TrEMBL record:
Protein name: Dihydroxy-acid dehydratase
A Pfam family reported for this protein in Swiss-Prot or TrEMBL: ILVD_EDD_N
Domain Dihydroxy-acid/6-phosphogluconate dehydratase N-terminal: 45-356
Annotated keywords: Iron, Iron-sulfur, Lyase, Metal-binding
Molecular function via GO: dihydroxy-acid dehydratase activity
PANTHER family: DIHYDROXY-ACID DEHYDRATASE, HYPOTHETICAL DIHYDROXYACID DEHYDRATASE (EUROFUNG)-RELATED
Family the UniProt entry places it in: Belongs to the IlvD/Edd family.
């Protein structure tokens, strides 16, 4: 049986655990009797897993426990059986050495958890940056119907009556502090309130970018992504997510690859460009596409980026926080404005197509959600550059950079690692001026698990002179809340012998954004000599997860997934017992 909107009805996975009158069936049912479930319940009702990344070391996800209760209520109301499973919580600012490698660990945990347990559908509860893609990647490979609900943005308030406190504000304030333009007292006041409520970062950083594109991908309920974490409407969405998940569980449909097709990724990239979203999302989308067999490449981001203007007036590229974007109409209104660029027939877990969702949407504030002919800023938001310095590509958030640097030639100042930057950047002996090109290497996926070091600090003496942007190039990532002329994700990275490893102080680097070129202006023979002399760095990790990570992580242009995790198993049931 099949219908147009929700796809075929499939046999319940959970029936293989609970609906057999044999010894395994007895064991499974009798075990869960201790959790309050009767033989009749287990024999007749679909089962939904609630995968929860709540933790009190992760304030971005701190409301997920309450939301899980609402999801549970919705599942019970709709006649399903809820089971909540705690998964690893990746707390962006706290977890060390950097959050990024744990995305793949969470993805593995989520996939194996779903496959090993009798879930007919799963609700994914994430919020902070890496919890969203980790859950999605794992669930996509597990192949069981999924629906994603985020924790929602925080609602920070002003520290000093001035700008609202948020992570983008922190970066600006740090620059002002280093330039001697802000007092220690104001800085301390900012520290006390910058994370003043639960919820993820409230500008269009990585978390808000991932949450909004989940609506465009079709894996979240329309309108759900930007409701603040503390807003009661999020709880109502959670209950609806629970109810919806039971309908998906009962049908075994739609499966992730029936939602996450090439149209869904195009729509997500379109929205990402329109909101000036985080460059990290590029990596996450590439990895997610790899899980569902969509042949997505960096070039697709550049193709879509060339035609989609920045229409969401939100930080860091614009003025407001995401709460204003929500009250201006939210993602459905953004999608309505972007209609000419979208695949309207793409399906969603809501049962509607994207085209049906935007029919009832409305732009309420045209300063916050701009019409296509009055963008927040002209020009592309995200660009992909290539050249002899980045043969497999590198990315730049053009809308958050000073356009004066889009065509730039300058002398390289090379830093081998982040500690050297800290030690040397303010050294009066350092030969650097505003035209210099700051290079950081050995910060790629293998080199350092790709921390968010790509927004290299500027020298104090240049900040004091009013310099606010310089060209920076690295194989690192950059926080979605950050800004500046940063060429990121240079691929292949220095630690595996990419050309970034061959740059020397004083080499001329040329960036040409309109031509999408990034060149190291050194003669090929000289580069070849340097290549012959290059030695790979000694492996830092000889055991444990980081050893596994370094052996299997793919380069940034492929999404930094593990090579052995690409794709999905055909069979959603685990082997054994049956
Ligand atoms: Fe968690 Fe920004 S620190 S979303
Ligand atoms: Mg981040």
């Amino acid at each position: 049986m099949s219908d147009k909107k929700t796809g075929p009805t499939r046999p319940l996975r959970s029936a293989r655990w609970f609906r057999k009158d044999d010894l395994p069936g007895f064991v499974h049912r009798s075990t869960l009797a201790a959790a309050g479930w009767s033989r009749e319940d287990l024999m007749t009702r679909p089962v939904v897993g609630i995968l929860n990344t709540w933790s009190d070391i992760n304030p971005c996800n701190l409301n997920l426990r309450a939301l899980a209760e609402e999801v549970r209520t919705g599942i019970l109301e709709a006649g399903g059986i809820p089971f909540e499973v705690p998964l690893m919580s990746i707390s962006e600012n706290i977890i060390k050495p950097t959050s990024f490698p744990f995305r793949n660990l969470l993805a593995m945990e989520a996939e194996e958890c779903i496959r090993a347990y009798p879930f007919d559908a799963v609700v994914l509860l994430g919020g902070c940056d890496k919890t969203q893609p980790g859950l999605l990647m794992g669930a996509a490979s597990a192949g069981v119907p999924l629906i994603f609900l985020g924790s929602g943005p925080a609602t920070p308030r002003s520290a000093t009556g001035g700008d609202l406190a948020n992570a983008t504000g922190v970066w600006r304030l740090v620059d002002q502090l280093r330039a001697g333009k802000v007092s220690e007292g104001d800085f301390a006041a900012f520290e006390r309130c910058v994370m003043g409520t639960v919820g993820h970062c409230a500008e269009m950083g990585t978390a808000s970018s991932m949450a909004t594109i989940c609506e465009a991908l079709g894996v979240s309920l329309p309108g759900s992504s930007l409701i603040p974490a503390v807003d009661r409407r999020r709880n109502l969405y959670a209950r609806e997510v629970g109810r919806r998940s039971v309908r998906m569980a009962a049908k075994g449909s739609p499966r992730p690859n029936e939602i996450l097709d090439a149209r869904a990724f195009d729509n997500a990239i379109t929205l990402l460009c329109a909101v000036g979203g985080s460059t990290n999302v590029i990596i996450h989308l590439l990895a997610l596409a790899g899980r569902v067999g969509v042949p997505l490449t960096l070039d697709r981001f550049d193709e879509i980026g060339r035609r989609v203007p920045l229409i969401a007036n939100v930080q860091p590229a614009g003025e407001h926080l995401t709460e204003r974007l929500m009250t201006a109409g939210g993602v459905p209104a953004l999608l309505k404005t972007l209609k000419p660029f979208l695949h309207l027939d793409a399906r969603t877990v809501d049962g509607c197509t994207i085209g049906e969702i935007i029919e009832t949407a409305e732009v309420i504030d045209a300063d916050v959600i701009r019409p296509l002919d009055n963008p927040v800023r002209s020009g592309e938001t995200l660009v992909v550059v290539r050249g002899n310095l980045a043969p497999d590509g590198a990315v730049m958030k053009a809308c958050a950079a000073d356009p004066k640097l889009f065509r730039h030639r300058g002398r390289a100042v090379v830093f081998e690692d982040v500690q050297t930057i800290a030690d040397r950047i303010d050294d009066p002996e350092l030969d650097i001026d505003e035209n210099s090109v700051l290079i950081l290497r050995n910060a790629g996926p293998v080199g350092a698990a790709m921390p968010e070091w790509g927004m290299l600090p500027l020298p104090c003496h240049l900040l004091a002179r009013g310099v606010r942007d310089m060209l920076r190039i690295s194989d690192a990532r950059m926080s979605g809340t950050a800004y500046g002329a940063a060429v990121l994700h240079v691929s292949p990275e220095a630690a595996v012998g990419g050309p970034l490893a061959l740059v020397r102080d004083g080499d001329i680097i040329e960036l040409d954004v309109p031509a999408r070129r990034l060149e190291l202006c050194v003669a090929p023979e000289e580069l070849e000599r340097r290549r012959q002399a290059w030695q790979p760095p000694a492996p830092k990790h000889t055991r444990g997860y980081r050893n596994l990570y370094n052996q299997h992580v793919e380069q940034a242009h492929r999404g930094c997934d593990f090579d052995f995790l690409r794709g999905a198993n055909e069979e959603t049931l685990p082997e054994g017992l049956f």
